[in-house]
Amino acid sequence: MVATGSINTLSTKWADNIESEGSDGQVRRFVHPFVQACAMFLGEFLCLLAFKGVYYHLRRKNNGAEDRHDLVQGNREFSPFILFVPAMCDMLATSIMYVGLNLTYPSSFQLLRGSVIIFVAILSVAFLNRTLVKREWFGIAFIMLGLVVVGMSDVISNDNAGSQYTRNNVITGDLLIILAQIITAVQMVYEEYYVTALNIPALQAVGWEGNNAHGVLEDLPDALAQMANNYQLIIAISGMIVSIAFFNFAGISVTKEISATTRMVLDSVRTLVVWVVSLLLVWQKFHYLQLIGFAGLLFGLEMKFPWSHTTIVDMINNDHKVEEKCHKVTSDIAAGKLNMAEFVEELGPALTHTDAAVRAKGTSLLSNVLKDLPPESLNEEQVELLCAFYIDRSLDHNTVTPMVLVGIEALTHMANLPDGAAVRLLRALFERVPCQSQKKPERTLYFHTIVALAGRKTDELKQWGADFVYGVIDAMEGERDPRNLLYLFENMPTFIRSYPMHHLAEEMFETFACYFPIDFHPNPNDPVAITRQGLAEQLADCLCATPELAEFAIPLLLEKLDSSLIVARLDSLALLRRSLELLDVAKVQEHHAELWSALKREVLPVGSTSGAEKELLDAAFLTVQALVKNASTSESTEKTLLDQILLSVMGGLSEANSKQFEACLRVELSCASASEYGTVYVIGKVVPMLLAQLNVDGHIDTRLANTLVDALQRLFTGCAQWYCLDKLDGALVGQVQKKFIEILLQEPDASEQKRLALLALAAVPEMVTSENRYVVYSTIVKILLNATDKSASTIDAVQQCLYAFAIRYQQEVKEVVLEKLVGHDYGTSEPALVQLVFKTLGKFVLYHGYTEKMVNFFLAKIFAPEDEKIAIVAMETLTDVVENGNWGELGRGELYVQYKLVDRFFDHAGDKLSSEYLYAMAQLIGAVVRLLSVDDQKDLILKRLPTLQLQKRADLYLASGLLGYLDQTVPLVDHFENLVTDLTKLGLESDDERVREVCNRLLCSLFNRMPDDEHHRGVLKRLLKLLREELKKHNHQAVVILSWVGKGLIARGHAEAGEVIDDIADLLDHPTLGHMAALAFEILSLEFPQLHLPLLRNLFKQKLFVWVMNKLEKRMEQYAGTHLKALAFVFTATPHTVLKMNLTKVGPLLLKCLAQDDDKTVLAALTIVLRFTREQAPFVQDHLQTLIPALLKLTVRSSSMKIRIGALECLLYVCKYPTFLLLPFKQSALVALQKPLDDPKRLVRNAAVAARLQWFVVGSTEEAKNDK
């Protein structure tokens, strides 16, 4: 604006000084001010052309850019005649100024134009409701003084008759310029009032101003003749046109973005530029008064417009980008560049304005700045000032109240909040701002303010007393917004526990009780959904925040338990349990009869129960337990309650065939689990009833016997919880153990009674007498050694019983059970039996007192030459114990140090051993090495690795055990290259698939852990070169090795990984290696549990996805089956969120994969498509016409049951999409889904029934309503 304005003034004056021949043939100066004014308006009109050009260019893009671009955004729907008044003012003022410019100096012209600030300020006060402070009036006075000095310099410095600038001419010119400034001030104020209010684009506004002006009162032929006779005039006029276009565009933009006064400030700055250039061009002489006048003018501008304050005040009403500038003000205050008190002072006119809307804007600006300030930015005095202001403003108009709440909430976070301020702020809110009269955002601020102050100023607010609690209750009462309620429910328990409720405890409880039980249905479109369950749990915290409140909950819950709504009863039971945890038995005892009566209706239901009712039933049993537990603090009260409960269920317990038996038994089990006394009471009362039914004369039905034994087992399992066997009646315990032993002796091993008896004895092995324990041991051994035809539940019961007795009776178990199991000849046993028994014995390795015996047993089997299969099972058992048994130092000490397991393997291993034996050996060595310290690992590698010759099969497996789980800090520099060479050679040449697998995994681990130095990179490059040579020979194993090496490099994020991926991707087009290349991507993508990769880089799976997509996406249309198979493997390993972000690229490829013949490709793609279908991804919706036929075809794919089930599940979830999209496919889907109904696999038939049923109801009346 400054540059183009200066050029405009100088171009105009240059044209005035140019002499040229006119239309009458006379040579004279170019004195055509009105032509110059018309040239100015032509320049302004060019802005309109530019506006239209930019607007239509952006409009052609059809993306809404015309509403966002800085040059054309704003209101375009306005009448151009709004700008007629400023256009006329501009034309008149410009013409008068150009006449004055012909008569005076250009620097005086420019200096005198500064007087426009005076007139703009006066008119702004009169018409724009501006208020000028003292500083601004002093500024205006200095500007007037500067203008007087400039005028005096013009009068004093020139009185030469022969000069162009005579005294009369200069005085006349100066007066004309001042007159023009009055007209210009009118134009500026008019523009600010209308242009800012209408948000007119600057280019458009300037253009219409130029179009509305018309040149008159001018000798146009003479002006044109002079211009034709002197090209310099054309240049000067062209400079005027171009500069005025840019100058006015910049000027009106400043008016729109900031204010008219700011525009005038910038306009006056160019005075210095014009003055200096005029002196340099000798268009005038230097006079010291001009310098004084110029200094006075600038000083006045500085006095009137300090950069920060004036900008803030002006922008309150005029700037539509207030939010952006608030951040600048905030940073200035935080940095100490701007004082908060001065800022508030400058906002004073807006904060005290008669218009409530202006006060709201001013308060909003202050509150937003305050909200963004760091807590330590203000001192205590400043915070006190702001507190007083906001307390005063709490009485203001309701349009100001929201901003007041923002400011008060911001003050609560200030570090220097003074003492007493919390009470004053909250009193003002409670008395002057009714919370529930505000809108939702304001109520949220209200609650945040209360919670923040209650947490910070606890002592201060406690002294306020009951009035504070009452104010909080009044603010909360009637709140309906779920987010505000969730916030209150989360924070009020702490409040209730921190503040005494005085006489308002019941009122506080009732405030929350009105929401119980929660009846809330979340909005499905809510991005951060609030659940009913979440609200219910938080509300329960409030209702049971203290025992004082929990006492009021009992009557409420008794009422709510009568509700017909299951969810209401569930919430009531949950709240009752919470209340019982807090209340003393004396507070609950009076309600025992009512509570049991209500609970009895829940625990003894009539008829069958649904899934929801089963949940209610479970909750009721838990509540019975809580009720008895509450009573357990008083033995007499507990006995009375237990008598009452037993009396109610005795009828059901006395008849095990009745439908009520299970419910009654669970009631008693709930009572027993509540306390030790309850267990003793229930067993003493119930067990005799059960034994009486079990010991009847004659035959007893098997199902009934199973029910009774199960009840006994459950009761004594509960007894184990309280360790109260010694408090039970000895005779009763003897009868029970006698019955269990009888069952062990008489019932078949596979019977349910024997299983239950074993579980009961496992819970309380102490009940079995010494002579009867050998019956238990015999039963355990018999079942374990004949376990092949036993159920898994029976075996589990046997193992539990064995381990329980092993802990209690160690010596007996060693001598009786373990001796028989260890001494058994497993050579003729089935492999499954050997694995089961060895797995059972393996756990004894971890039991103190059994370790030595069991380790010796397993080592004897491992190194026994007679049966290699048993040795393999023994090694697998020890490996499982070492890896999953938390053995730690014990494993290191026992196996590595004491038994020298690794050394024994090195002595024992040979090529005569089978690959299966050697593989199991390597796994066990690896598990032991993993437990060793780094120093022990280094010593082991130094001792054993140099002796190995990998060409020997046994040595290869030994190396695999040593290196498989080696710590990454153990150096292998001396062996690395030889290892890579030998392993690569074996991997390429061996015919043994197990050997090749060991080599490949070792290479993967080695390259994953290798140091990234020149030597190791050289080894890698030589290996890659060798493999590429082998690829030229069509060696399939080279592809496999390349993929394993690449896997190790990718996992660590090595730079060469991308090169390996490129090599494998290029092979996908290979006629003979393409299939192997696709399988190589499976190796790159999948996780192998037994593969040890010491270096794992974060997000390496995402990196693999990016590498592969960058390599292959350019040829998407040319993909063959191998490409799609490779991509399917990569997509399977890629995190779902990454696939979701790239679904536009991935989706079409997944659809192509579904059409492939390879089952692995289809299954991988189908799994991913199923996830997106469950999420109702928009991509799936857009491609239903392709997806549904493909899925229907897959439902009858005979080669894979998993594919058929996956396709049917996808079709089931597809039905969640809008009905109008599904109806075109409904008939064909129902017909196609008939065939899977007859599938030979039950799981497929079940999936087909569910899918077809869902498709059958597509378009039904009820579903259509749900869609709406």
TrEMBL record:
The chain crosses the membrane at residues 34-58, 78-99, 111-131, 137-157, 231-252, 264-283. GO terms for biological process: DNA repair; iron-sulfur cluster assembly; protein maturation. The keyword Transmembrane applies. Gene3D superfamilies: Leucine-rich Repeat Variant. GO terms for cellular component: cytosolic [4Fe-4S] assembly targeting complex; Golgi membrane; nucleus; spindle. It is a multi-pass membrane protein. Residues 344-604 form the MMS19 N-terminal domain. Residues 901-1212 form the MMS19 C-terminal domain. One of its GO terms (molecular function) is pyrimidine nucleotide-sugar transmembrane transporter activity. It holds the Pfam family MMS19_C. Keywords: Cytoplasm, Cytoskeleton, DNA damage, DNA repair, Membrane, Nucleus, Repeat, Sugar transport, Transmembrane, Transmembrane helix, Transport. It is found in: Cytoplasm, Cytoskeleton, Spindle; Membrane; Nucleus. Component of the CIA complex. Belongs to the MET18/MMS19 family. Key component of the cytosolic iron-sulfur protein assembly (CIA) complex, a multiprotein complex that mediates the incorporation of iron-sulfur cluster into apoproteins specifically involved in DNA metabolism and genomic integrity. In the CIA complex, MMS19 acts as an adapter between early-acting CIA components and a subset of cellular target iron-sulfur proteins. This is MMS19 nucleotide excision repair protein.
